[in-house]
Structure formats: structure tokens, C-alpha cells
Amino acid sequence: MKKICFITQCALPIPTVKGGAVETLVEYLLDENEIDKNFKFTVYSIADKEAKKISKKYKHTVIKYIEKSNGGLNKVLFRLDRALQHIGIYIPCSVEFYKMLNQLRKEKDIDYFIYEAGQTTQLPLLARIILKEKLLVHIHWDGMANKKKDSCFSYLIAVSDYIGRCWKNGSGCDDKKIIVLPNCAKVERFDIDMLETEKRKLREKLGIPFNHKVVIFTGRIVKEKGVKELLTAFEQLKTELVTLVIVGSANFGASTNTEYERKVENLIGESKKNIVFTGFIHQTDLYKYYGIADVAVMPSLFQDPAPLVSIETQATGTPLIATRVGGIPEYVGTSDCGILIEKDEHLIDNLKTKIDYLLANENVCDNMKTQEKKHAKNYTTKAYYENFTKIIDQIAGLSDGK
User: Fold this and answer.
1) pTM of the model
2) Cα distance between the two ends of the chain
3) Is the distance from CB of 170 to CB of 143 less than 8 angstroms?
4) Which tens digit of pLDDT belongs to each residue from 351-360?
């Protein structure tokens, strides 16, 4: 039985009482391991009272919590880290990460350490205390790869082919070093048929007229997610009897009020159409909002590596429109499972046209719903755990020369 230690950014807690896509993926592995018992897991996480209580359910995982430190000092360290990395000097990006490094030095009898990579500038620091053969990197973004970072670990586990290519292009590493582990979602959490009475109650709660169709956006309210562009396209729809529901916040589960959020709120306030801004909704309740939606839109403006939203949306069978960027095409699949549009100067017009098209074509939406639900079954947490197990066995076999 392999002993695996997950090294997180110590920013959001595990279990995921405050959200976080990367933390959620780790939690899925912990949950599935309670069933199959293939590993003994150790996890480093930021401390949180609620998370600590929930963590007691795990019999095959030990979670080691790092207490929060001075926020002001962390801001200084973060800025220094950003500045010094350009001249090849790497320092801890936070006090919490520094504390974790000290604890990691004491870890014995671990087969593999898996760095859930956010700040790849921390890799040279980890390499000082962890053997290269034992350090794996699970990369969730392009990682700003270079040869120095690449020399710190043995294998890169990428969330999409796109991210793997990004790392190879930046580091020049061998193809054999990169293994793809597609993301997952609790498909069963989203594949729930709501009663019509439940749908009606939620629509009434949100102030959605009974004769309106619903377009939904779920995700972080940040510039990169294209929320303003969606609002602009929504204003131009031919369809009048429609409501836009925006679900999310700028910083996952945290209560925020960023400048971008304020701009979004102002656009909503100025709109003559019906728009609902819900704020953060926990994953356990998200299916209800998809359940009243006719169309989902994911207008990412950046090279989105492998958004969980695409899996969650397809699991609900909500017809999806998304931009053709990053790893999104890999996850959306065939044209039967979603409509991909280019992120170019015609983005807003294309959004408007495709939303109008789906709202007016019920047969297309019905077929898409069927195909999406089939496709989503490739990304269950069970499949994720099984793929993870195969990858660890593969790496162990390669290390043994098999």
C-alpha cells in the first residue's frame, strides 16, 4: 500500500468548507480511498475549525493543519516572491508555506509527495527537502515552466493535454515525463431530476417570471471568466422572455466585493432585462440552479486549463456554450455535447447568436442534454480515483525498471 503525501498551497482548507477547485479534487481522492483503500494519504492543509471536525470521518487519511499567520507579512512575501523569481531566486510565498516546509522535513516513509501546484516558484524549495524521484507535480495551470523548475521533480501530472504541452514548451522536458489525469466532478451530485414544484419555488425565490427561459453562468466573478462580455451579449438577445442567472463570487466561498464584481453589479443594475446575481452557492446546491436553466454559458477569456464547470454543466444536461480556449475543447467533447465559439473580436456577437439559437431550438437542446449526460460519466470521482491509481502504479513500475 503506497503512502502518498499531498502538498497544497495552504490557502483553502480540506475538507472543502470554503470551496476551491484544486482542494475539491484532493477531497474526491480522499473520499474514494475510504472505499477502495489503495493508499495511506497524508494531506497538508490550512487550518479551519469546520474542516477539522469533518476530517475526523477519514480512516485512511491524516490531515495536518497549518495555522494561519499574519496576513500583512504574507502580502510582503508574495510580492517578494513575484519579484525575485524573475532573477532565479525562490522564497516561500507565505508564512504558512514556510511552516509546512519545516514539517515536511520530518516526514518519513512516504513513497510519493504530490505537489498540487499553484505557485511553481515553490518547487526549488521543495526539492531541497524531497528527493526528485519522490516528488510529483499535479499541475492545474500552465505553470510558467522553465528548466530549473522542471529539474526538481520526476513526473508531471497534467489536468489536460493542453497543460502538458504548455509545460513541455516552457521546460523542454521529455514527453515521457508528462502524464494526463483529467479532472472530475461528483456527477451524481449534479445529475438530479428536480420536481416541478421545486423548480417553481426556486424561480419564485429568484424573481424569475414563469414564462421566462433561463441562461446561467457559474464560476468566479473575475475578468478572465468573461462575465462582462456575457452581460453585453445578453442585452442584445433577440429573445425578450429570458432571465440571466449569475452564480459565483470573486474568491470561491469567501465574501468579497472586488472592483470587477462592483462593475458587474453596476451593469446588472443598469440592465433593462431580468438578471439575478446570487453570489456564491455551494456545490451541494448548484444542481438546483442548473435544474431551472435552459442554457449554460462559459465564456472564458483566458486559456482555461480544465474547468470543472464544464463537467458539472454536462452532468446536469444543460446545453453548453463555451469558448474554444485551453483545455475546454478536451472536456466538452464532440459538437453534440456543446457549442464552442472562438475567443476573438466577434465573441459577443457569437455569444448572442448561439444563445438565441439554443433558446429557439428545443430539439437541439434535448439531443445535447442526452449526449452531455453520457459524456459526463467519463469524469466521475470513481473514474478519477481509478486513473490516479493507475498513474501511481505506472510511475512506481517505471521507477522499478519494469
Assistant:
1) 0.86
2) 18
3) yes
4) 999 999 999 9
